[in-house]
Design brief:
heterotetramer; A: about 150 residues; alpha+beta; 6-stranded antiparallel beta sheet; 4-stranded mixed beta sheet; 10 strands; B: about 80 residues; Ubiquitin-like (UB roll); 5-stranded mixed beta sheet; 2 helices
């Protein structure tokens, strides 16, 4: 567990403050929140897990890349464990002199986090079944074996 | 007998019922061999033939030859964010 | 003075909350903060003023356009009066099902606000001079007559 | 004599020393006439020949003919955000 991974609620305002400075006129922020539906199914609960050490390293790499590519400061938090519907799972804030670089860096970080940071999401549905979310699978889901859900 | 500890996460840990499995070094000459070994375990058949494998937290290809002391990990498709 | 224009500090977190909902997985936020420099000069204070009624109308139009064009909810606040360096002058939050529409709507709103909402900014510099900011002028500034500043 | 109230903002208000000026209807047959009238006032020369003019909060071109009851406003280049 580090400053990037957290089991506590994430406060977007605190991250925005973290990347604010008197010479930064533009701060872009992205909040990825837990939705109550996925692939047409009602989600009632979910749980994030990670390969913590590698997730930290991958996330730190991504932040360093963003700060090398644009004149910005970037902050990132990703929540682990059970996350209530509507809560933020990930928050990114990028502050720079102007909005172009702030938006670009913020967008870069969320795309790379999704692609490269070893974090996984298990969803529980209104019908009692559970599945691992797999963005590479056709359905986007892998039902958890033995849960009685659709295969 | 020397062995390689393999970390399993998320769906792969569920499939094999463990978050860490010791694979005999004799069954882990290459990453491909190691994956074959894991896929032959009970529940392992649903692991893909070419999963994402990280050694010491960096991706390796299936020809990589694990050495004692390596931290090997099998990673399901990432779903953060 | 309305819900869009305010003389009080703006809380980005509150705006993010305002556009959050259980079916909205992506919230993009932009904070335009007051910088301590402009056109190479050190800014020590500034003051925003508006044609309030028209600014309200133009801002409401822009929000309606964004919400018609993308499946999002958007919130906007712009501060008026003196704003301390580093404080948010404008905050936009756009919440949608996914991040593409959230980023697109957020970006659309800030660009249109700058283009169409009748708000003006007067800056005071470290050397005691003042100027009206004019994005269409070569220097970006119109010195205030009689302040002794460079013309 | 009927007149048209003209709202002035920001730099234009500074230049003319007022945030509202009554322009005689006779000098405001069109927006272009009204602007000419304002530019001839003390301090008005720095107002551009074709400023952004809004009538009832919508932009009009210089041929627009103000009517009594119109809310006319001269807007400097916007600088919000």
């Amino acid at each position: 567990m580090t400053t990037i991974l957290t089991r506590d609620p994430i406060d977007p305002g605190a991250l925005i403050t973290l990347v604010s400075a008197p010479d930064r006129g533009g701060i872009a922020c992205f909040v990825g929140a837990v939705r109550n539906h996925h692939a047409g199914r009602a989600v009632v609960a979910l749980d994030y897990s990670a390969y913590d050490a590698m997730a930290d390293r991958a996330a730190a790499d991504i932040l360093a890349e963003a700060e090398a590519r644009w004149p910005v400061a970037v902050a990132l938090r990703h929540r682990l464990g059970p996350v209530p519907i509507g809560d933020a799972a990930v928050v990114i804030a990028a502050g720079g002199g102007h909005r172009d670089e702030a938006f670009a860096a913020c967008r870069y970080v969320i795309e790379e986090v999704k692609r490269r940071v070893p974090i996984w999401k298990r969803e529980r549905y209104a019908d009692g079944t559970e599945a691992w979310v797999d963005p590479t699978a056709t359905s986007g889901l892998h039902p958890v074996a033995g849960d009685g859900g659709p295969s | 007998m020397p062995s390689i500890p393999v970390l399993l996460f998320a769906r792969y840990a569920d499939l094999l019922g463990a978050s860490r499995i010791e694979v005999p070094l004799s069954a882990a000459a290459t990453v491909a061999d190691l994956v074959r070994h894991l896929r032959a375990l009970p529940g392992g058949a649903a692991i893909p033939e070419r999963p994402f494998v990280a050694v010491n937290m960096a991706q390796v290809d299936e020809g990589y030859r694990p050495e004692p002391g390596d931290e090997v990990a099998l990673l399901p498709p990432m779903a953060g964010g």
